[in-house]
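G.,

No rush on this.
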Amino acid sequence: MVRGNTMSRSRTRRTFLTQAGGVAAGFLLPITSDAAPVATRATSRPLVSARPKSRVVIARDDQLTRGHLNQHRELLHKLINAAMQRLTNAADPVSAWRQLFHPTDRIGIKVNTLGLSTQPVVVDAIVAGLRQAGIPAENILIWDRFDVELSRAGFKLNKSRSGVQCRGTDAEHYGSGYTKRIESSGQIGSCFSQIVAKHVNVLISVPVLKDHNLAGVSLGMKNFYGAIHNPNKYHDNNCDPYIVDTVSHRYIGPKWKLTVCDATQAQHHAGPTRHPSFAWPFGGLILSRDFVAADAVATDLLETERKAQGLKSLEQERRPAKHILTAGARQLGECDLSKIQRIEV
């Protein structure tokens, strides 16, 4: 079960949310960042030993399924702070964010603006958490492929040097924002966004919980197809192993600190384009420091919803999310659900 139905469970969750949301962002000494060093070879991958034990936090509240999401800004802030505390075992939200991020980090928040998009209010909650950790606003960059897609999804562009930045890779003109040199990683050969290549040293992936007509799911790993110039070339064989080759690259894997899957509004079928008839009011967020575990748990939730709706499994539709198993086999993270600690808030 994703959510408990008992009254005591509800009270416990709301008490924890109240405590998490009520902690002031007081002065704390920053801790050293645990970001893995950037490797020198394009095909190298982050060390498995450096990753924390696989833990995925599922934070939900029925209120998020009612009305407009912008009406629930305060609740989202409390919910993500509570999830971060459970993810890190920290005593308060500020300490939780500071376990993962350092004031000198340059952080790229990769959103998804294709089809059902990442909600700006969710990203606002993440930014608020980073600001609690002492990250200067100017060190935070919200990004995707194109300015026009970000604007269409409701994000406010900011290309100035003041405040939180928000822009597409191709902010100037088509093809302008990618590295000139083709980088090889496994079976892909691509030019990468200069945002991941030059401008940030820490990444947060903020995908949407949604189905994909070829890869099975479009989650944290698939989100980084938006970091290469030619993702159209890599959709054969359910996008496997190309998704994993992309995130294994030194520009992405070693910099990836956190996945916050936006499941406030989800889609269980016919993705990645938006189809309101398959909308799924999940009303929550899925967080993990292990990007493979995050995708594995999110896929399990999606498969459960598909079954509840009388749909075939992704395997039966010949579009299994095999890239998640490939990532696990390469020891990029944990894909075995029985070995993932799943925590509900």
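When you get to it, here's the other one too:
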Amino acid sequence: MATTTQPRTGMKPATSLSNEEILRYSRHLIMPEVGMEGQLKLKNAKVLLIGTGGLGAPLGLYLAAAGVGKLGLVDFDVVDFTNLQRQVTFGTTDVGKPKSEAARARLSNLNPAIEIISFETQLTSANALELFKDFDIIVDGTDNFPTRYLVNDACILLGKPNVYGSIFRFEGQATVFGMPDGPCYRCLYPEPPPPGLVPSCAEGGVLGVLPGIVGSIQAMETIKLILGRGDSLIGRLLLFDALGMKFRELKLRKNPNCPVCGTNRTITKLIDYFEFCGVRGEEAPGPSVQVPEITPRELKARLDRGDDLFILDVREPHEYQICNLKGHLIPLGELTRRVHELDSSQEIVAHCRSGKRSAEAVDFLRKAGFRKILNLKGGILAWSDEVDPSVPKY
């Protein structure tokens, strides 16, 4: 069953609603499961959202609309055009603005009666405990493994519920971690996957409506925790397949040997999560392996003077249709069985969208005996920025 959160000690809880609030929340108040008592619980609740993007957008909108009295927004990113396909908090005029501030403005307009605090900062081991301590519930709307482990561990150390969600392409999942006798994120994933094994949404894509569905589920779970109503997802991992329009559920159990929430805990403070996940340089956009590179301007100069270069495009066919450099398309996943299509005596320049996949291709080909091969630094995105702005970015 769900567990009701209580106002923090030392703070006087609200005991009434104004006439305007009664009108605003009237559809809640006439439900016996919410009523005046439940709406006051919402008004006294303090929820911190980690991320205001894909999952954070429906989370922020619905929690603000529901009357959660204090919402914290943690995000250090700025709004980009590519966000608008799914991050419905933002509009075209918000492009270039800090996400936390743009979200705060939108949510304040949606519900001026609540307190919204924006934290334009990256969540780190140095600030997580301080940011979390004044909130009742932490909602994880992040998209990378270091931050997920950080959120989990900080919640366990402080005894805070962690309402978790994740999305990729057409699939999503949600659960509630960090409750007494319930599992935590490390119980489900004791170790992070090797770097590069799981592509990001920027690399693999995500259907725009998917975060709306999963984020709404997270918002529902958060509200249920506040109200103390219904059956929570504690101990249950909800899996959603959008293409099949199917939900299924996996039982989760607390791992007694979990290093952070188990009986004999070995993690008693926050660690370096980028190192733990094998990530260097704060997940810099550059390649994960070091290979010889050529810049877009250098490539353009060599093509202009007629150098005999073979352009190898290791993206997927649907990406090639978006934009291309008229290169020879061999997707990275097919390279091992199609390597015979390449001439090792010819100078090759490999590229992808951002330079990561092509770096892996160059590394593989060099180990296979190719010596005259370079990686296009920054990929076709850098080519668009530095050489030909008519090439669309995606």
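The chain has two domains: 19-276, 293-386. Residues 293-386 form a domain with the Oxidized Rhodanese; domain 1 fold (CATH 3.40.250.10).

Enjoy the weekend,
O.
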